[in-house]
């Protein structure tokens, strides 16, 4: 019985300390200039298909370590990131119109915070906005994708941490983020400014 109590106390202590560590890490991530708050984006309760990815610090470092021999380039990219967040879910036309107004609100905030819009696709049934946050050395420190396909799917992505133009394609391929395919069609902000 004593062994069981000691084991339970050990695991509770570990879980509690991990909770505090993650809480501290979440606070740091939320202060980072590359972080975008998607809390207003609610996944509809009747969404038939949803994908939620929320990979932060320790898990990113673990994935980086695991891919070190297989893909050293990807490993290095992941080791510099603080967060990869992907929310994909099915929507109908009512959901799409509500989400468009929320996206518009988020866009205004991004523009106030000097995010740079690098991709905008607006067609009858498709809306894609991609923003990146650059530091004063033109280093990408944050990336946001907000995409809606009418009566079909919504995609929200936030990558927080140091990355570069070429790395974005690798991240998109690794985590199956189709919207990052647009990046191959455009020059990097550095090239455009020269």
Quick structural summary:
The chain has one domain: 3-Layer(aba) Sandwich (Protein Transport Mog1p, Chain A), CATH 3.40.1000. Helix content is 43%, strand content 28%.
Give helix and strand order, one letter per element, not per position.
HEHHEHEEEEHH
Describe the sheet with the most strands.
6 strands, antiparallel
How many helices does DSSP assign? 6
Oligomer: single chain
Report the structural category: alpha+beta
CATH architecture: 3-Layer(aba) Sandwich
Mean pLDDT: 78
β-strand amount: 25-35%
Characterization of this structure:
- The protein is α+β, with helices and mostly antiparallel strands and 194 residues long.
- It has one domain (32-193): 3-Layer(aba) Sandwich (Protein Transport Mog1p, Chain A).
- The chain is 43% helix and 28% strand.
- It has helices spanning 2-31, 57-66, 72-79, 93-112, 165-174, 189-193; strands spanning 50-56, 81-90, 116-123, 126-134, 140-149, 153-163.
- It has a six-stranded antiparallel sheet, sandwiched between helices.
- Helix 2 packs antiparallel against helix 3.
- The model is unreliable at 1-22 and 185-194 (pLDDT under 50).
